[in-house]
Design a protein that fits this description.
The chain is mostly beta strands. Helix content is 1%, strand content 43%. The longest helix has 5 residues.
């Protein structure tokens, strides 16, 4: 019946190509596609989504976390506001934090060593302080020094040398943080060859304090009256919290571990936009410090002492990330890569490195790119803050999603969908997120499109054929509007204790997961379609006649088939009742005459879904030109 007709065969489905005008879309790509996943040689309707958690209040943000491997319920931590308070809870209803400040609109976390570190912010700079949640209690990281001085008296025979010296104390928390020494140190004068009896060792009702350290100077000759002229050392002695007496005995030669740095530690750590574990140091980016201008504070990311996430020096515990570059704003996020530490501003990438000698303030910071950068959630994550994949990481920049391997790789990975990227509302760049699923080899990006003030679409990318602008296949995912709301508040990876996968908060702020067992979005129909490139039999302007479409397809329900010639007038073929499995090809007659036409395959009812493995369009050249 179709002898002599020429088939145009689509046996690859390479996703959207949305640049400039639609007539220039390459074959095997789509002018538009929605709610699809890609398979080898084909395309299929994405899976549906099901409820996994319904929180209290209207959710601002959620993050996946898991402290207790034996608990399957503590999967999410989320923020909402009630009355005058901003509240963070977990998914078993535990109130983790409640702050009387409604300017706090977002939070970021870092899960490590069985604890969750929490920083509060508004999307562009930190608010309040950094906290740690142990699974039992939440407190600010760091802590306050003892409020009183210890008493010292001469004891029994011992080895403490004759002369004057200063005694002080410092608390140690259950996370290993050691506070500043108490404000006024105790001057003791000893006869020599005696021990020292200490009493009135400070105590506190804070259950997070587990130990009190005894600090002491070496023998002082001609005391100046200014305690800060002398260096404190750890004596090696300590008592459990609540113990108020101790006898110490030491030689000055044994005082080798300096405690002098404790004088400069922060007692409270200002909140930031992002937390990162860099070589055993906690990095707080985008921190708020009211003692300096906002842009300067945001360009001085805090860096903790090595091996202690809570010990930050007020003197040199920060990097200087070009605070004079006002146009670039502050650091939003930090990322380690190949031993380096990268700081990302809205349109800047800077780098430094721990030299294992100097404090962070002395590490040189160099600008490596003055065009690309990102917002708070602009570095792609895999799970628990991990971002490195195939010796690179991804950056969600204003110009597009880019791969960074020490330099920005061009063109952008989203080069094919520039028209989509141009629809982003950059008034709210801090809301977009990017998540990588390395098992399925796909990328999820939440985007606020077409003037939306919350992300309202997911840009889905399949990199199973390679992580490059040429090989990634793109599709746009749209979710239902619930009660007039269509925003995607958060996206994340589902905790590994649950079935791993992609989760999102949506609509009425419940959290949903992509569920391969269902074909709807929480009982809402999925409108899925693939709209091919404009196809024809001649590129010189000759008219083509399209006579039939042959498909290799399976699914459920009815496949709607339409053709759209360049004139734009839709021609509808007879719907195809899809079989549950591919048994043969199916044919639909059409009669379209145009220079080119595109072909749209769609399901939009009930639990209808399709898997399309091959499409052949049969036709021929109809005329060399249109009649004049």
């Amino acid at each position: 019946m179709y002898d002599g007709l020429v088939p145009i065969v689509l046996d690859e489905f390479l996703g959207m190509f949305s640049r400039d005008i639609s007539d220039n879309v390459p074959p095997n790509h789509a002018v538009d596609s929605q709610n699809n996943r890609f398979i080898y040689g084909g395309v299929k309707t994405r899976e549906g989504s099901s409820l996994t958690f319904a929180p209290s209040g209207i959710m601002k943000r959620f993050h996946s976390f898991q402290l207790d491997p034996g608990s399957s319920a503590r999967l999410y931590m989320y923020m909402y506001q009630s009355g005058a308070n901003t509240i963070i809870k977990d998914s078993v209803g535990t109130t983790i934090l409640s702050i009387a400040d409604l300017t706090i609109t977002d939070f970021s976390i870092l899960n490590i060593n069985g604890k969750t570190y929490i920083t509060l912010h508004n999307g562009t700079h930190g608010k309040n302080f950094v906290y740690v949640y142990t699974g039992i209690a939440t407190r600010k990281i760091a802590g306050f020094k003892p409020s009183s001085a210890v008493s010292a008296a001469t004891g029994a025979a011992g080895t403490v040398e004759a002369g004057q010296r200063l005694f002080a104390t410092a608390f140690e928390s259950d996370t290993g943080f050691i506070t500043k020494p108490n404000a006024t140190w105790t001057l003791y004068t000893g006869p020599g060859a005696k021990k020292v009896d200490l009493t009135n060792i400070p105590t506190t009702g804070d259950t997070s304090i587990v130990k009190v350290h005894i600090l002491c100077t070496k023998k002082i000759v001609n005391y100046s009256g200014n305690q800060k002229d002398y260096e404190l050392f750890f004596t090696g002695d300590s008592v459990a919290e609540g113990t108020t007496t101790l006898t110490v005995d030491f030689y000055d030669s044994e005082l080798v571990s300096s405690a002098d740095y404790l004088n400069d530690v922060l007692e409270e750590v200002p909140g930031g936009t992002h937390l990162y574990n860099y070589n055993g140091r906690l990095v707080v980016s985008g921190n708020e410090d009211t003692s300096v201008t906002a842009f300067m504070a945001n360009s001085l990311p805090l860096v903790s002492k090595s091996g202690n996430f809570e010990s930050f020096s007020s003197v040199d515990g920060f990097c200087i990330a070009n605070p004079g570059d006002i146009a670039a704003g502050g650091v939003r996020v930090s990322q380690g890569f190949r031993g380096n530490l990268y700081f990302l501003k809205a349109n800047r990438i800077l780098v430094t490195r721990d030299d294992n000698v100097n404090p962070p303030s002395s590490w040189p910071v160099i600008e490596v790119d003055s065009t690309y950068g990102c917002g708070v959630y602009g570095v792609a994550t895999i799970a628990d803050g991990v971002s490195i994949i195939d010796d690179s990481f991804l950056i969600l920049s204003r110009a597009g999603l880019v791969l960074f391997n020490g330099a920005v790789v061009k063109p952008e990975l989203t080069w094919k969908v520039k028209n989509i990227w141009d629809r982003i509302n950059y008034q709210v760049p801090e809301l977009s997120q990017v998540i990588i699923d390395p098992d399925k080899k796909c990328i999820y990006i939440s985007l606020p499109l077409d003037g939306a003030f919350d992300p309202n679409y997911i840009l889905y990318g399949d990199y199973s054929s390679g992580m490059s602008a040429d090989t990634i296949k793109w599709d746009l995912w749209k979710f239902p509007t619930i009660s007039g709301r269509s925003q995607l508040k958060s996206i994340d990876q589902r905790p590994q204790l649950a079935a791993p996968g992609f989760v999102l908060s949506f609509g009425q702020d419940n959290i949903y997961f992509l569920d391969t067992a269902v074909s709807q979005d929480f009982s809402n129909v999925i409108d899925s379609f693939y709209d091919t490139a404009y196809l024809g039999y001649d590129n010189s302007g000759a008219l083509s006649q399209f006579n039939a479409i042959r498909l290799k397809v399976q699914g459920s329900g009815s496949l709607l088939i339409s053709s759209f010639p360049l004139s734009g007038v839709e021609s509808v073929a007879v719907p195809l009742a899809m079989p549950a499995s591919i048994t043969r090809d199916f044919l639909r007659k059409i009669n379209v005459i145009s220079e080119k036409s595109r072909f749209k395959f769609r399901v939009n009812a009930g639990t209808d879904k399709y898997t399309i493995a091959r499409v052949s369009i049969y036709g021929q050249i109809y005329a060399e030109d249109r009649p004049q």
